[in-house]
Amino acid sequence: MKFDLVWLIPIFPLVGVLINGLLGRRIVEKNKSLVHWIACGAVGLSFLVTLLLFVKLLGLPAEERLYDFTWFSWISSGVFHVSVGYLIDPLSMFMCMFVTGVGFLIHVYSIGYMGHDESYSRFFTYLNLFMFSMITLVLADNFLLMFLGWEGVGLCSYLLISFWFTDLANAVAGKKAFVTNRVGDFFFAIGLLVMLTHLGAHGMWSLKFTDVFSHAQLLPPHLVTIVCLLFFLGCTAKSAQIPLYIWLPDAMAGPTPVSALIHAATMVTAGVYFVSRCNVLFTMSPFAMQVVAVVGALTAFFAATIALTQNDIKKVLAYSTVSQLGYMFLGLGVGAYAAGLFHVLTHSFFKALLFLCSGCVIHAMSGEQDMRNMGGLRKKMPVTFITMLIGTFAIAGIPGFSGFFSKDEILWQAYSSPQGSHLLWFIGVLAAVMTAFYMFRLIFMTFFNECRASEEVQHHIHEAPKSMTIPLMVLSVLSIFGGYLGVPEALGGANRVERFLEPVFGLGKDKLLQAAGGNPLIHRVVAETAEHPSFAPEYKLMVFTTCIVLAGIFASYMLYMRKRSVPETIAANNPSFYRLLLNKWYVDELYEKVFINPLRAFSIFLWKGIDVIVIDGLVNSTAAFFMECGEVCKVSESGYVQRYAVSFLVGVFVLIAYFVYVR
Amino acid sequence: MNDYQSVYLALSAILFGVGVLGVISRKDAIVVFLCIEIMLGAVNLAFVAFARANQSAEGLFMVMCIMAVAGAEAAIGLAIFVLLYRKTGTINIDKFNLLKW
Amino acid sequence: MELLGIVICGGAALACALLVILSKNTVHSALWMVGNCLALGVLFLFLNSQFLAILQVIVYAGAIMMFIIYAIMMLNLRVAAETDFRKSLFTGRFVVLFLFIICLLALGLGLSPTALKGGMGKIAMAQFGEVNLIANYIFVQGIAAFELVSVLLTAAVVGAVFLARKD
Amino acid sequence: METFKIILPATDYVAVLPQMVLVATALIVLIMGVFKKFVNTSGVGLTALAGSVLALACALFVGHHGGPSSSFAGMVLDDGFSYFLTLVICIIIVLTILVSLNYGVFFENVKSGEYYSLVLFAGVGMVFMATAGNLILLFVALETMSISIYALTGFHKDQLKSGEAALKYFLMGAFGSAFLLYGFAYIYGATGSLDIIKISNFIKTHPQILHLKFMVAGFVLMLAGLGFKISMVPFHMWTPDTYEGAPTSITGFMATGVKAAAFAALIRVILVPLAPMQHSWVSLMWVAIFLTMTVGNLIALAQENIKRMLAYSSIAHAGYILLGFLSGTGLAQAGMLYYLMVYAFMNIGAFAVVALLCKKGEEFNNISDFAGLGFKYPLLGLVMTVFLFSLAGLPPTGGFMGKFYLFTEALRSGYVWLVVAAGVNSVVSIYYYLRVVVIMYFKPEVTENAVVLTAVSPGIIIALAVATTAVLIMGVLPSYFFSFAGNSIFSLM
């Protein structure tokens, strides 16, 4: 096996961080372009190495596609050892491919987008740090290293959301994201500890994925459920699911490439990745699977309803991200891991594309984000328009575009899989319709009709520079053709994505684990690749979904192109419902009332009552006490050397007296 | 054979004590240093006595090394005294009290 | 007979030592120190260590002490730098400390010659202290320390010259 | 009378190659210093640097292959322990010279050949102290180190403080070595040998000797003499005065090199041979360690001068390291070595930053001088913050891991209350370390007589970079270094 180059993948961005982080300011003074050459170069190199390893992996027979590269020992304390090591298997390489690939494109895009920013080098430092953390997350071969990456991406997300921290709103948004994520991380860490202590009680002090999964049968079923639910709660924070999705829309305060990279394409899929990685555990707990599926479906629906009424272009996309992530979890929850990951892939292409396009729009509109002040940009920004349209087709699930294949696969699995149900499928379809509706609403409001911006802004509207449009084109090509990697068998494809990932999820896994020295699982993994006796139901569903999606588009066309007064009438006739959606179901307010206010009151009590009076009093008086002790003791240091000698003598005498006479 | 070992050792201990007493009571840096030399002399005596009792040359070599070290210390110590004397006109160690607390 | 010699020389060494710390005049202190060295030298002879006795006289009394006296003369310090040290010498804590150290060291240490049976020496008593035995030790077993002494002396000279030099 | 020949195998000299390189460099540097007219002044420092790097390379590649062995008839030991400490000390020498190169820009004397040769001579003494297998060599090495450092302490000849520091250190040092020697004499009398391994074996075969008051007194006096060098309470009094008065580059050297060498001697001479009587020193050492930590930390709280503060903190650190002495297990000793290594990097680093903040002939040593530094020189502020965090024992730095190892072992050996006290002490220490950080970042810069970086040579940048990296790496990836320290302890002769 020659996968030993794998450590190069995370190292390149890290080197970028070090160079730009330490010397960035000086480099910018000398030669600004060097900063992005370093940053993009680092990620580009990572991508190349990933590509190399990926090709190598493809060259192997399916059952040999597992390699654990241990780089060096990290923590070793008694029986507990953790090393820094990377796991190469179809899942990690699959993730790593698009993380580095899309990451590279967005790095390139940022050159243009951030070109005039003062903190140019800081931005690229953070981006590279993010890439490092994300690569660590997906490549790690044990829970702890993965958790390091997990925390790392959270940190970068925080740093980048509040990148323009001089604006208070951005800082607040960053804080919200951070705190919400901490809540999730807390549960995640508890899950990890529960699992580790329990396995440790059986003498399995290891956090390696392969070890844990091959010994998973040591965990009693109720414990597996608890651990899975705790993990999933962590994932809901990172991947913005109910109930911890609230930070993601606010996270749009960051620069748009950040929204594209972190809050759409890569970081938010970490939860999906993690659940897939732990599929062994989740499969052992049907209840946890049910929870994942229901939460995913509800999130998909719920976020879509909110997106219907948002007027901020990035907010629409943000809620659509939440909604699409819900789809992925729906897929995972019904046991269709491969389908969920396939959607991760296609989503990363088209959502990155959509965000970058919206970035171009915002850039052209001099920072304006409200769609009500846009319109008619089609002619002024043709490239952006066409690419964004492609992205919209993809996300809406128009046949032939990538989103169609992945979304359809999830819906089909939700319908047909043993863990699925018709209700879940129906919720998914509803979300799909709404997705098509609000995405086209976005297109119509932004690119069609007359321009509603002020004269001055209109004057400045221009197409984005090359460094921004080229990534758009690449991504739009991927948005179209990315789906063909996984054409389902019903449409005569080979569903390559599923075949590729099968060793991780399917029955092949047992073989792999045996090869890695583990025991075969007691709980058999349910085969999600059940035989298709007939493709007829799948065709029916496909046609039905497509029709209903087209209907949604048509409705959008009618409402926002033809009878533009209608939306207002609808809103006026259903004021309470409209306001409910516009204000995002008042979830923020609910949280505020239920969690934050009591907590705040309690913490004010803690602060004013306990902290200021009791603790501060204690701390301050302790500090004062120690200071005073110091002041008193220091007099012993009189400056007269003979007193020092006396002190020395006293020491000797005490020692001798003790040893010779007392002992 | 009575080799008066304990007499030598007692003498050495008392000499050492006299040296210590001088170090902690005299203020003249040179005399303080002389008292340290007395202590070293006492150590030498102990070493020679033990060397004879053990019948090994190690102790004798140690004494030679101590003599060399005493010489080296004298050189460095006197240089420090000269340095300070040039600056302040005194080598009373109680006068050097800038550094404290 | 031997005991008498030891007591006389020891007494002399002790007296010289006391006079070192009691003299008002720094030069006198230094001269008493020479006396102390000579008395110790004689004690070394009683201990069959002729070579060390010679070294004690030549190196200690002869070289080091002369060096110190030279320094005293150079600094022109005829009268000791302090006043009334004798009062402080015999008052208060110093007396206690002095008694303490004497009793500790003498009691705890001096009077247990049984310990010395553990010695591992092999040298015949008659040869002990002869120069060739010492030389043999220095140049075979002790060569590393001997060479390091040369480094030590070089360092001391370098440091002393630098510190005492007028810039 | 038979004639005798001096027959020494050539390999003996290979074992002391680093020391030989250091001596040769010292002499070359000394001669270069004399010919000032012909040699560029920076040439002296660079030669010293080259020599010390060469010594480091020798220590790294030549030393300790295979099992423990000894050379020079047992005088010099070549085991993993020697290897480890020789490396650490050589690193300290290299870092000190790098710092001095920059410091010499401000102070004429520090540029001279004498300065560098004395640093190298002191280094030779330290290395020999760590490798000595015989008390004679140990003593001579200790004096070589001490005498060089007495002189170096007084190197600011124009400052009275420096001379005073030298005087105090010299008098106390000579006083302390007399006690040490007296201890050696008793050990020699009781066991009949000055060879450390023979002493060890003798104690093993004659355990009753430990009940001899003789022997115990010898041990106590040795402990006092070495305790003086590591500034253990109550033998610590010289430390703050000397550290404050000495040239800053030398203070860093003293705080790390002398301590490393003295701890090495302490382990070799007391901890290992006298392990059988360990149970008897427990309660007394308990008190001494408690006092060492507490006195150091408490008085450090009340300091305004950063060198003096670091001096008191170094007393406290000696207390932490002595925890390993008390636990006495192999892992605890490995923890001591690990801590010594981290301590070397973080302390020399902190002193290097202090040494960097100078004007011609004038230093900025008050903590208040650091106001606003964090924003004025962000990189320097960051580096200093790393060192202070590490000294305070906060993750993710090496200082944290070092404390972790020492405290864990002490807990495992049952010294719960002492570890609690050590924990409280660490918290107290965080206060005064972070005070500097706070002043650097949250106090506005003083307007008059503000700190200005006037000379930053590549040397000191390398030194700071190396020290920072080492501190961080040892904090994040401690296991390699810890197993290195552990192996060196287990191959201790």
What does this structure look like?
The complex is a heterotetramer of chains A (663), B (101), C (167) and D (493). Chain A is mainly alpha-helical. Chain A has a domain at 588-662. Helices cover 73% and strands 3% of the residues of chain A. Chain A is built from 28 helices and 2 strands. Chain A has helices spanning 8-30, 32-58, 90-113, 120-139, 143-161, 168-201, 209-214, 221-238, 247-250, 256-265, 270-277, 279-284, 286-307, 313-333, 337-364, 377-380, 382-396, 402-416, 422-447, 455-460, 466-481, 496-505, 508-515, 536-562, 566-573, 575-582, 587-633, 641-662, and strands at residues 67-77, 80-88. Chain A has a two-stranded antiparallel sheet with strand order 1-2. Chain A starts with 7 loop residues before the first helix and ends with a helix. Chain B has one domain: Helix Hairpins (Orthogonal Bundle). In chain B, 77% of the residues lie in helices and 0% in strands. Chain B starts with a helix and ends in a 13-residue tail after the last helix. The longest helix of chain B is centred in the last third of the chain and has 31 residues, at 58-88. With 167 residues, chain C is mainly α. Chain C is globular. Chain C is 74% helix and 0% strand. Chain D has one domain. Helix content of chain D is 74%, strand content 2%. At the B-C interface, helix 1, helix 2 and helix 3 of B face helix 1, helix 2, helix 3, helix 4 and helix 5 of C.
Percentage of residues assigned to helices of chain D: over 70%
Largest beta-sheet details of chain B: none
Count every helix of chain D, treating DSSP H or I runs of 4 or more residues as helices.
20
Strand content of chain D: under 5%
Taking strands numbered 1, 2, ... along the chain, how are they ordered across the largest sheet of chain D? Answer: 1-2
Q: Report on the biggest sheet of chain D.
A: 2 strands, antiparallel
